[in-house]
Every structure is written in C-alpha cells, then in structure tokens.
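Exercise 7. Given the encoded structure of a 718-residue chain, write a plausible sequence.
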C-alpha cells in the first residue's frame, strides 16, 4: 500500500532570546598520551579563549580512582590566548581525572575534563617480550582500536607505557580507500617498526573489510574470509605494501573479529583457513591463522580448527576461565599452541572504577594462570573527544600495566594456604626476575581487610599495589604482616622456597577425634629446593593435647618429601573446632633457617553434633534476668549412645543432664537455667559439652556471654 503522508502545521513563540558567548577552553598535558612517568611531575596547561571583559574564575579539581579529591585550587581565569600552567603535587601512581570549571557570576560557564595516569619508572634495560627470550608462559597483550591514520603514531607510545607483551593490530579501518592506502600503510610502517624494536609480539588483524572494497566485491564489512577467497586483484592493492615489508617478520594473522558473530559456519572453517593461507603465502612463508571461535561451542575432532581467538564476556567469573582453554586443547586436531582470549571489561555505566579494576586484575590473573597463549583486553584508553590528537587513559590502564609488569618472566608455582576467602599464589621468577607472591581476598569492598601474617623472607619485602606504588614491610617477631582486600597486591623480594616450605607443612589426617586416647597422624614436610635439605622439628608443649615425639630429625632429597610419625592425645578439656599446630624447625637448605611453621586441624566427633546457644530470659517471679542455655545433641553414628550433657560456669555449680539411649539419626535437647545469670556471668565465658557415659569421647564448646541487648544471645555450633 502507498504510505499516507500527513501534513502537520504548527507555530512557536519565544518570549525571550538570550545569545551567550561560551568561552573556548583547552586543558592539556605536555605528554601527548597523558601518561606521566615517575619522577616526572604532572603539569596541566590551560588555554582560555575569551574576548569579553567579564570577570571569570577558574576552579581546578583532581580526583583519584575512588573519587577522592587529591587537589583543589581556584584562581582568576587566564584571558585571551594567555596560557596558564599548574604543577600538581600528586606523586602516588594511579589514575586521575582533572576537572576544570570556568565560573561566570558563580555559575559554570564551561567545563573541561582530562584523564591521566602516573606510572612507575620502567625497569632498565627495557624488557624484551616473554617469547623473545624464550621464557614460556602467557603473553599479556592489548587489542588495539581501528585507529585513524593521524592517530597511528600514538599507538607505540601507549603500548610501550602499558608494558604489553603483545598487540593485535588492525590493518584496515572502515574508511580506507585505494587512494588513501599508501599513506596509511606508510604511517603504519613506522608504528610496526617501533613496536618490533621494543620486542612487542605483533598479530596483524584483518577484522573488517573497508567500505570501498566491500562495495566493489559486494560483501558485508565482516566478510573477511569471503574476501580472501575472492579475486586477489581486488584486495591485494590495499595490502601489498605491508606484505612486502613485514611478511617475513610477522607470521601471525587474525582473520575476523572475535567480538562479532562468525561470518561463516564452523564446519566451513578448514576450507576458509586454507584459502586465507594460500592468499598470504606468497609473502608470508608460513602464516599462522587465528580465527574467532564462539564461546559456547567446544571444538570437536571434526572441526579441525586452527588457532582460535575467544571473546570472553564480563559475566564469566574469573575462576571459570580455565573451562575455555582446556576444552579445545583436549582434541588432537586443534593446534592448541595458540588459544587467544580477549577479556571484556565490566561496563562503566554499572560499576565503579574500583570494581572494574578489581575484576580486571582477578580475571587477568586467572586467565594468565590457565595458560592461554595470549590474554588481551581492548585498548584501555579513548581518543580525545575534542579531536586534538590525544588519548585519555582508562583506569584499566594502570591495572593491566601492573599485571604485564609483574607477571612477565614469572610462572605460576602453586598456592599458599592462608585462610578461607584469601588467595595467595606463588610466582616463580626466571633468571634475574625474582620470585613473588600475589594475594587478595574475596571480601566485599569496604569490609575489614584481612591480614597475611607469615614469614616471607629473612629481610624486608616490598608490596606493589595495583597502580605500582611500593611499600616496604619489615618483619615483626619474624613475621611479615600485609593487609589484604579484593584488589590484588604483588609481594616482591620473597624467599619463594622458604614460603613454599612453610605453606606445605601439614598433618594427615587433619581431623583429630575429641577422645582422650592415642590418635596416629603423620607430619608431612616437602622440600621445594633443588638441593637435599635436613633439619630438626620440635613440637612445643600445649595444654590441650600431648604431641609425641616432640623432637625429630629429618632428611629430604631435592624436590622430595618426608613423612614423620605423630601421636596426638587430646586432653578431656580440649575445645572443639579449628586448632593450630605449631612447630619450630631448624632447616639446613641453601642456608640455615630457624622458623616456626603452623598448620590447622579440626577437633571434634564425627558421630556427635552439639549446637549450643544462650539467651537472656526475664524471670517474672524474681524480677531478674536468668540465663537460659540450650544444647541440641544429634547422633550421627550408627550405634545407640548414652550421653551426658554438662555446663561449667564461674561461680555456678556444675549442671548435668542425661540423654539415655539416643538412637542413630535422633536429636535430643537439654537446657540449663541459671537464676540471675546475666548479672552473674555477663562478660564471662562458660563451657558446655557432651560426653559418652561409658567412653572417653567428649565434645567441648565455649559460649561467651555478652552484654549486648539486641540480640541478647549467642550460639556455638558444630
């Protein structure tokens, strides 16, 4: 049907018209990439173009990653083309945003923002890429944007400041034409040569077809594989100069964009890859083709997929990243030496800068540990919206730089058991690259931070935060104490073997029955050194149990272990729950160490559960507040049991209750009422427990009676 066109008429009246002249404002830094390298001092330059005589005021504020104001100043705005500079007294490494407001009569007439980062001085000499010196491991890289020809010279500076091991470089952009191709390829030549000199592992990306070329070949812009299978005389002029100059140096090519749906079906990939290889082989002797692969499809032997690139959305949790590297490598047909992962960051509209930084660092660490050939993120910067040939670094810039700097030359060597929700990984260094730890917690932001308390070295250690700020930590009583939260920190100058030896000290089994008889256990010691070690282990006295033998000598081969006998006899008064076993060790390894190690065991009864609780109970007859103790006892065994439930409290006679013939799976409740108990026992501890009437098993727990009014109760569970 023919569309019906409707004419609409209308009129508008204006009561008042105001014509305002907005001042032109420019806020910049001497560094074109807005990256300040210590010991440089950040300096902001302001240029205000305003010809009127109205008095204007400039207000400058600088905020950090967490939105805290770190600098503020107010001064008369420079006039005309007059330039003003401000040296910022900001020295800590990190991401910052400068906000400059021009005020007219107390109102904001113009606002300009500028994002910048301060990073530590890079190591000298400049580090080579991980593969350049033969070190194994995952490359941390960056997927560069499809940049205009004018902005191409900024890319090597940003990649260098990022300390990235690798970069995926798009060769074309949408607006490339046959006429502009020589100019773009000439500019790109300088970019490529600069990054190769800095040992950046480059991957050329043909991720789109330029609009002009797509029209001439009747293709969609995503049809790169279709283009390569087409007439090479149509597309080779757009690429020849690059192939001639770098075909022998760069063999890795990414065909297609992993962020976009695949333009061809997976079963067509082998033929498409063969065609792409033949189209490049004249200039690239042995091209390595990487293709996008859907996240939800596991390659099978029939796919015969080449090296793959996977786009991993932000909703995939860090601990699940290994699912996407092990599955493809399980097939014989996959050339599994190259699985690239491109990590999506959390959207800035839904998460704070701190949350995005924490998530990126944790996901980057897990992806690095899982062994992808390369882990990359999209360029953590944006181009200046004012079109001034400048870039604005994102908060992700400092996080990814720290990961690239700290992980380069190191390999994952295990995890130090610390506490529930605390992660501490061993990072083994190669050669001049010293070993380190990386640690963080699962705690919610804003909660009380945890503390890593362990001997990490014989001397001071240094802690590098996510932005590269360094803090030296000295030992107290032989132990280093490092506060932790969700943001990973890197701990340098550690004696890795010493930390591993401490972390692998264990007692097997780690459950001790709460029965006053001999329980046979084993002390396990492992040798992380490449040489044989010997020493003596001493178990200090403890009033809750008897540990024998208290002194034992040992010898361990290089990378070996030793198992020593241990008898544990719990006292009847031992309290159920987590218990720490300490041992003093004199160790002869690469040097002599005198250290105290520790591990945890659980004390309890596998066939009896006891849940104890207390509550303040007003007594209407006496007008006082009694204390009501409730004990819930469950039989988890397969035998009928006769039990006694007891309570011991200061100044109160012992109370006992009997549970006769408690059958398997049955539960009984026994309570004790202490008259005026809140006045007598407030602020004190009482002991409750259950024991076998005709045995030695006894389960003890402690209740702390607090003076809190809401809630006026507490509990002790299994």
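Solution.
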């Amino acid at each position: 049907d023919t569309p019906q066109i409707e004419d609409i008429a209308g009129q508008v009246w204006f009561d008042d018209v105001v014509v305002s002249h907005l001042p032109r404002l420019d806020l910049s830094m001497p560094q074109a990439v807005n990256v300040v390298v210590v010991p440089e001092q950040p300096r902001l330059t302001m240029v205000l173009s305003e010809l009127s005589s109205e008095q204007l005021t400039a207000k400058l504020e600088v905020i950090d990653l967490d939105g805290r104001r770190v600098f503020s100043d107010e001064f008369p705005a420079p006039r005309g083309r007059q330039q003003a500079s401000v040296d910022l007294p900001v020295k800590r490494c990190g991401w910052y945003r400068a906000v400059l407001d021009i005020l007219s009569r107390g109102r904001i007439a113009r606002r300009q923002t500028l994002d910048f980062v301060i990073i530590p001085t890079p190591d000298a000499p400049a580090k080579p890429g991980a593969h350049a010196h033969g070190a194994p491991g995952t490359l941390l890289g960056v997927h560069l944007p499809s940049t205009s020809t004018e902005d191409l010279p900024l890319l090597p500076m940003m990649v260098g400041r990022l300390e990235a091991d690798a970069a995926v470089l798009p060769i074309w952009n949408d607006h490339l034409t046959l006429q502009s191709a020589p100019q773009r390829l000439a500019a790109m030549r300088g970019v490529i040569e600069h990054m190769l000199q800095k040992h950046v592992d480059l991957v050329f990306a043909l991720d789109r077809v330029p609009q002009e070329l797509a029209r001439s070949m009747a293709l969609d812009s995503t049809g790169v594989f279709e283009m390569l299978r087409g007439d090479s005389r149509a597309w080779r002029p757009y690429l020849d100069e690059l192939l001639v100059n770098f075909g022998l140096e760069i063999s890795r090519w990414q065909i297609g964009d992993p962020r976009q749906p695949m333009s061809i079906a997976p079963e067509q990939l082998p033929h498409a890859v063969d065609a792409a290889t033949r189209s490049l082989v004249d200039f690239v002797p042995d091209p390595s083709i990487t293709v996008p692969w859907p996240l939800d499809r596991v390659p099978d032997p029939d796919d015969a997929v080449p090296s793959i690139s996977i786009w991993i959305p932000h909703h995939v949790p860090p601990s699940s990243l290994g699912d996407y590297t092990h599955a493809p490598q399980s097939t014989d047909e996959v050339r599994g030496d190259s699985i690239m992962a491109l990590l999506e960051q959390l959207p800035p509209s839904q998460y704070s800068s701190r949350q995005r930084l924490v998530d990126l660092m944790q996901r980057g660490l897990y992806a690095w540990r899982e062994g992808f050939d390369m882990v990359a993120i999209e360029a953590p910067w944006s181009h200046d919206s004012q079109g001034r040939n400048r870039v604005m670094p994102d908060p992700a810039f400092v996080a990814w730089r720290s990961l690239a700097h700290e992980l380069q030359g190191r390999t994952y060597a295990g995890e130090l058991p610390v506490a529930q929700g605390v992660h501490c990984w061993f990072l083994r260094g190669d050669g001049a690259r010293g070993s380190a730890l990386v640690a963080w917690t699962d705690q919610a932001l804003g909660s009380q931070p945890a503390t890593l308390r362990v001997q990490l070295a014989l001397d001071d250690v240094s802690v590098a935060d996510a932005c590269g700020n360094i803090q030296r930590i000295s030992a107290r009583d032989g132990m280093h104490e490092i506060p932790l939260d969700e943001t990973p920190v890197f701990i340098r100058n550690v004696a890795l073997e010493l930390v591993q030896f401490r972390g692998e000290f264990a007692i097997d089994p780690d459950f001790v029955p709460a029965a006053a008889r001999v329980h046979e256990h084993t002390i396990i010691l492992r040798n992380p050194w490449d040489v044989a070690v010997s020493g003596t282990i001493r178990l200090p006295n403890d009033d809750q149990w008897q540990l024998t033998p208290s002194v034992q000598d040992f010898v361990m081969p290089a990378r070996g272990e030793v198992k020593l006998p241990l008898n544990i006899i719990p006292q009847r008064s031992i309290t159920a729950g987590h218990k720490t076993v300490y041992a003093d060790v004199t160790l002869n390894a690469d040097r002599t160490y005198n250290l105290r190690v520790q591990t945890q065991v659980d004390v309890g009864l596998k066939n009896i559960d006891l849940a104890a609780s207390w509550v303040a109970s007003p007594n209407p007859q006496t007008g006082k507040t009694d204390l009501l103790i409730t004990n819930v006892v469950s039989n988890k065994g397969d035998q009928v049991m006769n039990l006694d439930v007891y309570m011991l409290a200061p100044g109160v006679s012992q109370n006992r209750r009997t549970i006769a013939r408690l059958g398997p799976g049955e539960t009984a409740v026994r309570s004790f009422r202490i008259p005026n108990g809140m006045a007598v026992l407030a602020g004190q501890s009482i002991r409750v427990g259950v024991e076998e009437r005709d045995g030695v098993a006894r389960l003890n727990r402690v209740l702390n009676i607090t003076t809190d009014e809401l809630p006026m109760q507490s509990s002790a569970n299994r």
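Remark. The longest helix spans residues 353-370. Students should compare their own answers with the one above.
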